[in-house]
Amino acid sequence: MAQERADAARNRAKILAAAAEIVATSGMKGLAMADVAAASGVGIGTLYRRFGDRSGLAYALIDEKEREFQQAFLTGPPPLGPGAPEIERVRAFLYALTDRTFAQLDLLLMAETAGEFARFGGAYEAYHQHLVVLIARIRPEADAGFLADALLAPIAANLIVHRGRAAPAVKAGLDALLTGLG
Hints:
Layout: H1 6-26, H2 33-40, H3 44-51, H4 54-75, H5 86-103, H6 105-112, H7 122-138, H8 144-152, H9 157-163, H10 167-179
Helix pairs in contact: 1-2, 2-3, 4-5, 4-6, 5-7, 5-10, 7-8
């Protein structure tokens, strides 16, 4: 993989910061390529060459936060990262995933509904596998794959929007589900 030029890396960071600010204040509907170019101080051509279109830019925003999140649960400090009892790690993971989902709700809603199986891509598989490992240690006799899916289901962006639930309500529901696990 070729190393990114320093000026390209700076432009990428400025573009993503500007786009994140626009999404935070105006939602996904407010994410216009011309506005991002103006806010970041880069040319519109640079923006299109780098990200292709609005959805490419949205996926780049998701990817940046996704990398940070995965790093946290794989190698970060406990209880989210290794070193805490498994049930505490599951709870910390689900809470952090809930927070992560609400932080990028518009973007994740767009990404998760882009196609029939869009929600079940690489990130979902990483979450699922992480939970399967932890659940298998807590309840070796259980169907860890099924339980992982059951715990991840309430954190789907489209379900959160459809039900109109707030983060505390989602976390309370997850706690209720976890009482049967631990």
